[in-house]
């Protein structure tokens, strides 16, 4: 595919063509299978780039600077043409002086009209591919800058998430150290009536309770396990647990001679127990 068509195909995929070029590109896409395949290839490449990172638009200054590249190139061509014309006029004026020889009227011109037309047309034919390549490069630079900006934003977000995770982990470590260093730290191994075992580590002074389930059965989606602290006034909810992972509960209203219990409740929990406890342990 020549440079003109490659420029139109890339511009159609990027959406950077002027109105007239866009119409030309759409006509080619409908009539020329090779051109349509090239457009599809550009679309596929852009899609792969878009999948790597969320694209973020570059700043207005960056866009203006990149898009100005083709215009600067186009302005440079007329300036070179004007310079060439001035040089030709100076050479003609020099030839018209008395010292110069007038050309023989019978001598054929060294350049035929077709040759002159060919030389005149050549710069125009060269200019379009060069301009097309500059425009394609500008569009590509815009796309790359957007992808790189997206990658930078994602990297910053990933760093922030890692910092948050480390902060949470550090807080959990500090709470675990408080529990393990408590002077009244106690342990209980409680059998679960529906199967499995629940290990408790707790401290009344620190108001903390750590639960470690072992081989406890999975509940239906509409059920959950609810924790209770039971005293003379009755049961008080201490939260929910999955039965599949450890739980560290803090700031519990724990007192001496309380009873810890677990019941199976509807999803979301209940204000008071609605079933017989599957775990009971005196604290």
TrEMBL record:
One of its GO terms (cellular component) is plasma membrane. It comes from the Bacteria. InterPro entries: Anti-sigma-K/W_factor, RskA_C. Signal peptide: none annotated. Keywords: Membrane, Transmembrane, Transmembrane helix. The chain crosses the membrane at residues 132-153. GO terms for biological process: regulation of translation. The keyword Acyltransferase does not apply. Residues 136-278 form the Anti-sigma K factor RskA C-terminal domain. GO terms for molecular function: sigma factor antagonist activity. Residues 84-95, 103-123 have a biased composition (Low complexity). Residues 71-127 are annotated as: Disordered. This is Anti-sigma-K factor rskA. It comes from Nesterenkonia aurantiaca.
């Amino acid at each position: 595919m020549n440079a003109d068509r490659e420029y139109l195909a890339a511009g159609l995929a990027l959406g950077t063509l002027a109105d007239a070029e866009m119409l030309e590109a759409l006509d080619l896409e409908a009539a020329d299978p090779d051109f349509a395949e090239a457009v599809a290839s550009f679309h596929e490449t852009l899609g792969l780039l878009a999948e790597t990172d969320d694209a973020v638009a570059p700043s207005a200054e960056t866009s203006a600077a990149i898009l100005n590249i083709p215009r600067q190139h186009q302005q440079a061509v007329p300036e070179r043409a004007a310079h060439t014309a001035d040089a030709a006029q100076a050479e003609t004026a020099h030839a018209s002086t008395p010292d110069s020889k007038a050309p023989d009227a019978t001598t054929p011109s060294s350049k035929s009209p077709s040759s002159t037309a060919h030389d005149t047309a050549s710069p125009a034919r060269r200019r379009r591919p060069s301009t097309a390549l500059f425009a394609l490069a500008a569009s590509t630079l815009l796309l790359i800058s957007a992808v790189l900006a997206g990658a930078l934003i994602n990297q910053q977000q990933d760093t922030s998430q890692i910092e948050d995770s480390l902060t949470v982990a550090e807080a959990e470590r500090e709470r675990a150290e408080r529990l393990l260093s408590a002077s009244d730290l106690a342990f209980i191994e409680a059998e679960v009536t529906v199967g499995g075992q629940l290990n408790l580590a707790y401290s009344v002074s620190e108001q903390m309770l750590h639960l470690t389930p072992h081989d406890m059965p999975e509940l239906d989606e509409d059920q959950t396990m609810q924790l209770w602290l039971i005293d003379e006034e009755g049961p008080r909810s201490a939260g929910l647990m999955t039965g599949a992972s450890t739980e560290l509960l803090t700031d519990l209203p724990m007192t001496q001679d309380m009873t810890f219990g677990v019941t199976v409740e509807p999803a979301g929990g209940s204000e008071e127990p609605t079933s017989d406890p599957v775990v009971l342990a005196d604290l």
